[in-house]
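Action item from last meeting closed. Structure (575 res):
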């Protein structure tokens, strides 16, 4: 077991919030000589010897590390950025079987994804929720409502009836369900079911990193694999602490290449010839004030002018519009005017808004590349229409070099990837314990019931300061699981711990201390964008003017607070 050993920086009463940008640490300041959780893990990586070195901590690397460590392998997990800071922070947050992939007759893919979706919904009842998709079909849609309903029934069947049944709606029903939909040219609609991540993709990925840590893995963000050489049957890897520039080595019997869009580059460096390779499909999202009713969460689905499905997905008091699918040659992307205007035009044409959405309504955006897998010899993919390219994953094992590579995949596919990687690592000679499937999922129901009992006794939900937000007990349990009991204790012993720390962001002071202790936050962006989604849902001006921001940074970084705030804005402002 790896204990969370970050020093407790300061507790309420120790920090007096004076005015914006000024926090006086009164007592109990952070002892810089204590090892943080990250430092402890880097110390374990330095000159370490592991069964497996996992390179890349997006969903595929994190899940591989959790599955392997959970079955007794000694695992090192590294990412040159923050955990989940590349593709895995840019998704639509959907856990789905991929209804639209049936357009390309990808039944085995849809079956596998639906199975994984059903398992995830069962294992994460508070983090992954079933959600209705309401698809409006107008004159120009490629399918008539009755045909779409037939497809939805097939989808439901392939998904082993793991959700509520689909429905066929007439135009009035569509309008009643979501008055914001423009039904002037609609012929009807269908409702089908899938699931979504209530918090965000990167926090979900981090839950696997934590699971790996708890099972004994050494994991660190901002640690880059510079090079790796095979010496006497072992991989000797040169690593670099990106935050400090320090270089050190670690050794491993095997490597899992989970570098997402970068897998081919690593394989080329190791002369690892593979049957598959990656091509990039860019997708963007725009986050705007909530467009749909807040009475319940529902995804709206529309065909865009190119007959491709796009969505309006709820994210608390916001809506996420997306996504797009553009072939690009580079993995580094950003939202450009063309993408933005395309999505705004598409959504404005399909909604009845008092005033059309403009760029000024956009609170945040997301842009990433799907790493899509094709055959290296060009045996597929070349003749297929771009948007019809498969979203499947492939895992390749090189016995001679002791490398397992994960190509492609989806967040939804994560449990399958974890299991398949573990099976391949076992074939490379690393003995694994029987899979008890305890490396994923939320705590047991009895533990959950006990949390809610304690929260009720202390009237936790009465502390909620904002209307239109979920009960605090629900939020804390979902975000922290077992660690939520510590939060109750903190709030019981000091009511200031139950206060919102940053204006319009839904974060209690106590949560920041948990984050500082156990969430390996190196930069402010790690907290604002990935452990939380504050950066995505709170307008930039509100963040900049928030009197709580300096206290947040002080709890996370102690004396380094101002430097980390400056670094955060320098990156945001593109300096
Ligand atoms: C627009 C969009 C929408 C999507 N929507 C969904 C969805 O709703 N549902 C769903 O299931 N899937 C969705 N996906 C797919 C899913 O997000 C991706 O398939 C998945 O995140 C890929 O994860 P990964 O771990 O392979 O790659 P990544 O998340 O990119 O992780 C690879 C990591 O490797 C690290 N790395 C690379 N080189 C090195 C090195 N030398 N040393 C150390 N680290 C290194 C990188 O820093 C990176 O963090 C979407 C994808 C996109 C782009």
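Sequence:
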């Amino acid at each position: 077991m790896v204990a969370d050993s970050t020093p407790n920086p300061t507790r309420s009463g120790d920090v007096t919030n004076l005015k914006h940008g000024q926090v006086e640490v009164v007592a109990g300041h952070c002892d810089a000589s204590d090892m943080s959780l990250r430092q402890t893990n880097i110390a374990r990586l330095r000159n370490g010897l592991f069964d497996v070195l996992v390179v890349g901590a997006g969903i595929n690397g994190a899940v591989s590390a959790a599955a392997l460590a959970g079955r007794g392998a000694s695992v090192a997990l590294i990412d040159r950025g923050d955990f989940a800071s590349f593709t895995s922070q840019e998704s639509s947050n959907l856990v789905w079987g991929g209804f639209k992939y049936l357009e390309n007759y990808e039944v085995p893919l849809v079956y596998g994804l639906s199975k994984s979706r059903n398992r995830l919904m069962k294992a994460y009842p508070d983090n992954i929720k079933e959600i209705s998709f309401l698809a409006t079909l107008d004159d120009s849609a490629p399918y008539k409502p009755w045909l779409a309903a037939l497809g939805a029934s097939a989808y439901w069947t392939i998904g082993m009836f793991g959700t509520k049944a689909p429905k066929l709606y007439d135009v009035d029903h569509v309008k009643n369900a979501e008055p914001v939909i423009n039904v002037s040219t609609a012929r009807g609609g269908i409702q089908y079911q899938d699931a979504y991540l209530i918090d965000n993709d990167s926090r979900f990925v981090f839950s696997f990193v934590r699971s790996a840590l708890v099972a004994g893995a050494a994991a660190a963000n901002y640690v880059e694999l510079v090079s790796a050489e095979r010496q006497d049957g072992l991989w000797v890897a040169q690593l670099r602490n990106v935050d400090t520039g320090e270089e050190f080595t670690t050794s491993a019997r095997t490597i899992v290449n989970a570098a997402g869009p970068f897998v081919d580059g690593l394989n080329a460096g190791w002369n690892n010839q593979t049957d598959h390779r990656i091509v990039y499909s860019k997708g963007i999202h725009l986050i705007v004030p909530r467009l749909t009713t807040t009475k319940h969460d529902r995804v709206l689905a529309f065909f865009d002018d190119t007959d491709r499905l796009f969505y309006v997905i709820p994210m608390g008091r916001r809506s996420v519009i997306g996504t797009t699918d553009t072939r690009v040659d580079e993995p580094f992307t950003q939202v450009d005017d063309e993408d933005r205007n395309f999505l705004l035009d598409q959504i404005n044409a399909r909604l009845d808004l008092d005033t059309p959405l403009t760029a000024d309504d956009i609170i945040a955006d997301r842009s990433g590349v799907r790493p899509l897998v094709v055959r290296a010899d060009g045996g597929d993919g070349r003749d297929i229409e771009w948007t019809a390219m498969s979203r499947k994953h492939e895992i390749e094992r090189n016995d001679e070099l002791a490398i397992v590579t994960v190509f492609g995949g989806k967040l939804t596919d994560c449990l399958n990837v974890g299991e398949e990687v573990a099976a391949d690592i076992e074939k490379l000679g690393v003995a694994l314990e029987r899979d008890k499937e305890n490396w994923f999922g939320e705590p047991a129901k009895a533990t959950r019931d006990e949390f809610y009992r304690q929260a009720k006794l202390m009237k936790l939900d009465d502390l909620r300061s904002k209307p239109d937000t979920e009960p605090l007990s629900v939020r804390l349990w979902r975000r922290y699981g077992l660690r939520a009991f510590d939060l109750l204790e903190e709030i019981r012993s000091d009511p200031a711990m139950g206060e919102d720390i940053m204006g319009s962001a839904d974060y209690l002071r106590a949560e920041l201390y948990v984050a500082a202790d156990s969430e390996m936050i190196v930069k402010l962006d790690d907290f604002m964008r990935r452990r939380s989604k504050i950066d995505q849902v709170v307008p930039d001006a509100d963040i900049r003017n928030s009197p709580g921001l300096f206290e947040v940074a002080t709890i996370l970084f102690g004396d380094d607070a101002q430097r980390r705030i400056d670094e955060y804005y320098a990156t945001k402002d593109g300096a």
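Note appended to the action item: The chain has 18 helices and 20 strands.
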